[in-house]
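Follow-up to my post from last week.
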Amino acid sequence: MPRSFYDTDPRDRARCLLNKLLVRDGRAGRIVEVEAYAGDEDPASHAFGGLTTRNATMFGPPGHLYVYRSYGIHWCANAVFGPESVAMAVLLRALVPVSGLAPMRAARPAARSDRDLCRGPGRLTQALGITGADDGADLVTGDRGVAIVDDGTPSPELPGVSARVGITRALDRPWRWYVTAEACVSGPRRTGPV
DNA sequence: CTTTGGATCGTCT
DNA sequence: GACGATCCAAAGG
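User reply:
Got it. Predicted complex:
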């Protein structure tokens, strides 16, 4: 994806990431669930309240990877959106495994089936081997082996839409999008289509 | 299938 | 000193 793809408001463009590929060295998965976080306008965003050491990558140029530690245990991966100094991002919540299944299984012995390899934000980073060391990687150039690429598969015309998962504030904002009827979408219950 | 509780630690108050 | 943009195993229907 070109840099310009990311240099805009993720609330308008996050759904365009659906069906794109997240690639990590020999492993790849199709993005089927995303959430937009709108910086200082969004009480649920890590950037709400301004620049800190943790969220600094979100304030940088678009098209980079923002990785943070969740609940002290897991890593979660975002694509940074919007111009420099504007801290917006899209959380990648689920993938359909496409290639490199063997190393994914090795990285996630707890997964009972391939469906669970990348179903959830903490799980997909574990399956692809993404950690805090990858924070700041350039998704456009793939300078550190992580990239988002378009293989020609179009995004769904009518993605599912819902409130974001796992947050306690700004629950009224419908900024989660997913591929309807896709078994690898996360959550105990999948919300219905639009 | 659903619910529940524990793990674990960097970050910000 | 509290609290997460979570996951997993265990237990009950």
